[in-house]
Structures are given as structure tokens and as C-alpha cells.
UniProtKB/TrEMBL annotation:
Gene3D superfamilies: 1.10.357.50, Exocyst complex component Sec6, C-terminal domain (1.10.357.70). The keyword Cytoplasm applies. Component of the exocyst complex involved in the docking of exocytic vesicles with fusion sites on the plasma membrane. GO terms for molecular function: SNARE binding. One of its GO terms (cellular component) is membrane. GO terms for biological process: exocyst localization; exocytosis; protein transport. The exocyst complex is composed of EXOC1, EXOC2, EXOC3, EXOC4, EXOC5, EXOC6, EXOC7 and EXOC8. Interacts with EXOC3L1. Interacts with BIRC6/bruce. Interacts with MYRIP. Interacts with SLC6A9. The keyword Secreted does not apply. It holds the Pfam family Sec6. Keywords: Acetylation, Cell projection, Cytoplasm, Exocytosis, Golgi apparatus, Protein transport, Transport. Belongs to the SEC6 family. It is found in: Cell projection, Growth cone; Cytoplasm, Perinuclear region; Golgi apparatus; Midbody. The gene is Exoc3. This is Exocyst complex component 3.
Amino acid sequence: STMEETDREAVATAVQRVAGMLQRPDQLDKVEQYRRREARKKASVEARLKAAIQSQLDGVRTGLSQLHNALNDVKDIQQSLIDVNKDWRQSINTIENLKDVKDAVVQHSQLAAAVENLKNIFSVPEIVMETQDLIERGELLQAHRKLMDLECSRDNLMYEQYRMDSKNTHDMNLIHTYFGDMQKLSEELAKQLWMVVQRSLVTVRRDPTLLVSVVRIIEREEKIDRRMLDRKKQTGFIPPGRPKKWKEKMFNILERTVSTRIEGTQADTRESDKMWLVRHLEIIRKYVLDDLLVAKTLLDQRFPPHYDIFNKLLNMYHQALSTRMQELAAEDLEANEIVSLLSWVLNTYKSAEMMGNSELSPEVDVNSLDPLISQNVVDQLLSKYMSTLTSNIIGWLRKALETDKKDWIKETEPEADQDGYYQTTLPAIVFQMFEQNLQVAAQINEDLKAKVLLLCLQQMNSFLTRYKDEAQLYKEEHLKNRQYPQCYVQYMIAVINNCQTFKESIISLKRKYLKMEMEDSWSSSHTNMDTTLDIIAKEGCSSLLDEVFMDLEPHLNELMTKKWLMGSNAVGTICVTVEDYFNDFAKIKKPYKKIMTIEAHRRVVVEYIRAIMLKRISFKNAEERKEGAERMIKEAEQFRFLFKKLAAGSGEDTEGLCDIIEAIAEVIKLTDPSLLYLEVSTLVSKYPDIRDDHIAALLTVRGDASRDMKQTIIETLDQGPSQPNPNYVPIFKEITVPTLTVPKLLK
């Protein structure tokens, strides 16, 4: 058995230990000592064992007693449950019979509420009157306080009724009708609030507390709205007239007010005032800026931050302005009105005079404002402006030319400028009109200015062609009757001078308004205009010289005749007439006057030589030849003197022209016929455009050369070298020699 085994193990262990202790003989002496020590050890172990067993026994005893108690408890509970079960089964019927008590409780709570509200209910008519009175006196906060009490009573009654019997509409209506006047009060109060809101920008300056009261009332109503909506989620009940949404209404009222404010600034129509639009826009600018400044500095502080009142107003004004500008853009605007509108929309609106005002920043950032009208509308307006302007300019130019033409037939001389040159007002009128339109276009933008400039130049181009035609007609009409118009010469001079003024004005316009990159599109039309102007001036000058030579004709016809040889004063008269005309021609501007002087000089010499070539005289002898030649030399000198005087100061060298007459005179004067060939060849080498027929005519006038001699001289000349003056302008080529022999009996 296990016990025996344990005993054996113990004995074996003990034997081992004793053997270990008694290994040497001298240890035997200590046996007694060893025995006592072991006895002590054993006693100690036994004591510990006894204690352990004892405590375990105690634990077991306690556990047993607790189990015993638990058992008793379980038995008690079981009994109780049996009792409860029995009671519950018995009381089911009793519970069903308690419904009446429950109903009584609900009714009790309603009656308690009704009793509580009774004093309110009975005093409803009285409170309504008091509230009405407060509203009329403008004590809005107190009026609202009473209104809230009334609404609270009605809403609580209705809620109780709804809880008791939600289908009973009759009782609901009864309550509603009883509180009927209260609805009117709410509307009456709202009306007062909206009046204050409409005038908020004025009120905030005059009576800020009134505005604050209004905002507080709206905030209270918003709170009640929220509470009612929450209750509706839970119970399904919401009183009539809720939610009132007074905050939303307030913003709607503000929006309407802003629109009306902007629309109402148009005081005039085009019929009553040509500047109606400029005025309208200026009033809008002033109102909007003033309103926003008030809104920013005063209004903003009177509203709770979450209303964001300034930004809301800013948007409202922007919207209202946008609507108004679109309405204006859709009207049938005139050109200047389109410019006013666009300039306002594109420039003024965002400028420092309005939204860019420093006092509005940083809240207003002009760069983040949307455009007031779309680019599409802007483009439509611009194209309408350009087409209107085009027809206007065409009309203005036509009218200007018509007016100018009326002046041409006046019996009084044209005006002279500060330097004494004749002119008409045409260039000034035309360029003033261009300037005005360019300045107007510049108000909008560079692009439009460039378009208008090109338009002006295109129109100017076709206008100058008409001007040229009119000048031509003027000349033709005059030639039909040279007595009319009385001041033809002076007005033709004015036309010529206008060409110079036009040239200068075009250049100054170009300098002032033309961008470098547009040079190309401009240069061809500029060249065209310059060419046209030169043609007008040149034709004008030539028609004036025609006038002179028509008057000189009878005197030119006298040259190289018997009468002339006998001593007529034809050249004297010619010189006086030319000088007389040139007194008028002094009113021609420099470049053209210089051309006139040269041309007159040239034509006089040509006509003189032509008179020689007409073979109207044939000298009979050396005496006559000498007399005739000396007369020619003297007359050449008269011409030289005249034209030197006329060209004074212009540095014109036309000496050479009169030299031709002198050279011809030398051929005629020659006394030794054997030297004739030499003299003629010198003449030809100087003036190589002399033709054979010219030489033949010259020899005929000389009167002493036979047919053979003429033939020989002409044939020999063909081989001669020529050494003309490099500045010589051929003059003979335009002189024809009559082929028929003219009878010598001419005067």
C-alpha cells in the first residue's frame, strides 16, 4: 500500500542520512548530539503540519455552512416567484379596468394646462389691444414680447388639443378663431419691421436702436421657428403660420429696396434731357457708394455677424446694377449714350469713384466682382456704336462739305489765318469731329480708340475724293462764266491751303492717337490721302494759272507782231497782270506758292517762245532784226526782274528760263550770216530738245535765210554734240510750230 511505500522511502532516506553523519569513528561521540538536533527538526515539522491541517478544516467548515444558507435562500426565492406568478395571473383583468383612470390623468393634465392658460385666455382681447397700442406707438420690442405670450398660449392649447385628439379639427378651429386677431397683430408688427428694414440705411444713422430692436425681434422669431420645426419632427404638430421665416423676408425686402433705389434714379428721359443717361448713371454711382459706405461703417455693427449683412447688400447692389445695366443696354441707345454706358460699366464701376473706393476695402475687392454685363452684350454695343458712328461720320462729313461749298460762292473773301493765308473752316471742323470721337472712344479702351481712328481715316480718304471732285466742278462752273463766283480765285486759294492743313492735321492726329503696331494698316491710306491732297492742290494751282493766262491771252497775241515791233506795251501789261494776281497768290501757303511761282515763270517764257515760233513776223532787214532782238532782250530782263521779285525769299533759281529768250534773240540779232550756223549750233547744244521745225521757224522769223541755207544748217546740226545745263528742264518739247504758212499780213 501507499503508506507502506512511504514508510519504506522514509526509512531508506533516514538510513542514508545517518550513514552520511557517521562516516568517521570520532563522529560516534556526537551521536547524542545528532539525535537531539533531529528530534528538534521533527518536532518543528509536525507542528507546521498540524497548523496547516487545522486551517484547512476551518475553511471546509465555513464553506459548508454558506452552502447550507444558500440552499435556504434559493428555496425562499422559488416560493416568492410562485407567489408573484399567482398574483400576476390574478391581476390581468384588474389592469384592463384601469383605462378610465389613465384617461382621467390625461384630462387632468389638459385641464391643469387650461387652468394655467385660463387667465391668459380670458385676457386675450385685452392683450391684443395693448399690443396694438404698443405697435402704433412704435414700441416694437414690448409689442413683440406680448405677441409672443399670446402665441405661446394659443400654441400650447393647440398642442394639448392635438395630443388629446389630433383628428378633432372643430376644436382646433375654435382655438384658431378665438386667437384670430393675433394673426393680424403679427402681420401689423411685420409691416412695421419691414418699413424700418426698407429705410435701414437712413434709420441706422437717425435711430440705430430702432434697427437693433427689429433685428432682435427677427432673431427671436427665428429661434421660435427652429423650436417649432424640431417639435414637428418629434410630434408632427406645428402651429399655424409657422415657420414665419422673417429673416428670409427681411433679405427679400432689402433686395426689393435696393432694386427700387437703383431704378428710381432715372429722373429724365431723352426727350426731356439729352444728357439723361449721364445724369442717371452719376446718381446711381453716388447713391450706391454712399449706401455701401453707410452699410460698412454703421449697418454692419447692428446685425449679428452670421447675417453677413455687408456682403449680402454688396451682392444685392451688384445684382440690381447688373439688371439695370442690361435693361439700359437693351434700349435703343444713341452713339454717345452707348459710350457713356460702356465707360461707366467697364471703368467707373470699378474705379476709386465707386467700388474701388479706399474706404470700402478690403471688404470690396474690385478684381473679384463679376462683370455687370456680359462680354457678348459689350461686343453688341460696341458694334452698334461703330455702325452708328460710321453713318454719323459720313453724314457729318457730307454736311461739312456742303456748308463749305456754300462759302465758295460768297461775295466776300474767305477768312485768313494768323499768317494771312486764306482758308475755310472745313479742316478744323472735320478734325475737331475726329478728335471728339477719339477722345470719347479712349474713355472706353485702347482697342476701340484704334478702331475709331481707322474708321476716321477710311472716311477721310473717301471724303477727300469727294472734295477733289467738288473743286473740279467749281472750276468747271467758273469757266462757263468767268465773272462768277466773284471771289473764285480767293476760294480756290483757300481750297489749296486747306490741303496743306489737312496734311498737317492727319500727321498730328497720327502722332497723338496711333499706336506703333498699327503703322502698317495706316500707311497705305495715309499715302492715298497725301496723293489726293497733292492732286487737289496741284489742280487748284493749275486752274489759278489758267485764270492768269486767260487774262494774258490778248497781250500774248500781240507779241511778235508789227504792232509789237512798233512799240506795244504788251509785256508791261503782262508783268502788271501777273504781279497783280500774285498779290492774291501771296495768300497761298509756302510749298504750293513756290510751285505756283516756278510754274508761272515757266509758262510766261513758254508762251513768249511760242509767240516767236508762230512766225507772226518775219524781219525785213538787219535794222528790224536788231530792233526786234533788243526788244526781246529787254523784255526777258523785265520777266527776270518780275519773277525775282515774286520768288523773293524762296531761294528759287529760275534765271535760266529768261536766258533762253536771250539766246534766241542773239540768233535773230546776228549780222554776219556766215556765223549763223555757229550761233544756232550753240543754241541747240544748250537746249537739246529744240526740234528742226523750231530752227526752221526761227530762221523764218529772221527773214534772211534761203530754203537751201535752212536745209544745210538743219542737216549739219544733227551731228553736233550737245552740252545742256544739268538743271535744264526741256521747254521746247511742249511748243508746237504751225505747219501751214501763216499769212504775213497778221497785225
